[in-house]
Write a structure and sequence with these properties.
mainly alpha; 7 helices; 46% helix; 4% strand
Amino acid sequence: MKSIIATSILVGSATAFTTNAPSNNGAALKAMPDRMWDTMVDKTERSAALPFLPRPANLDGTMAGDVGFDPFYLSSIPKNFSGFIQPPQWEDVGGGIPTLYWMREAELKHSRVAMLAWFGWLATDGAFGVTLRFPGDMYSVGSIPNAYEAHNQLVDQGSMGFLLLAVGFVEFCASAVLVEVSKGESDREAGDYTLDPLSFLKGKSDEDVKKMKTRELLNGRLAMLAFGGIATQSALGDATHAFPYF
């Protein structure tokens, strides 16, 4: 009898903490706002580069070199990047610079710099049979044995100051163009500086132009990996500073 009474008391205590109100879980779920994820991907298609992931919404294959590779969906994040160029308080920047435009601009810039840097690193170390250096004893092999040691020594010499000014001038000019794009005053494609001194694109069809641009991107992406590999390999030890870096 005592056990029955104890059980009844426990059951009564438990029911005291329950509610008789109907469950609103279904209504709460329906009231939730749409997820940003739904606008960042195209659920009807798969990424060509990563078939196990849905295609990023902005990577529809129309841009040169676009294979849908964006595993973190950075290209789908809505953001106006014009504020990185000049404060919005200065003037109205119009529609701004969308994420995909900014990222393609950055990718092309890094690709071109990496292609030059990879060639420059190897050329100054004599990888192509001839050691290419600026004239003057301060740039000779005796003063700067290899490309790995060039940075610190050129900083000490003061030569990097001129490079900083040159890079700053180029960035200033490029930023002015991006401001025009942001304000809708220019329909310039990302990374297009109309620099074609050898007329590779002159008279070419749209399909051929896209192929050339894709080749530039593929070589640039490879160069970014290659330059990172050289810089890392040459820094592993004293024996790897000079070509062939092992």
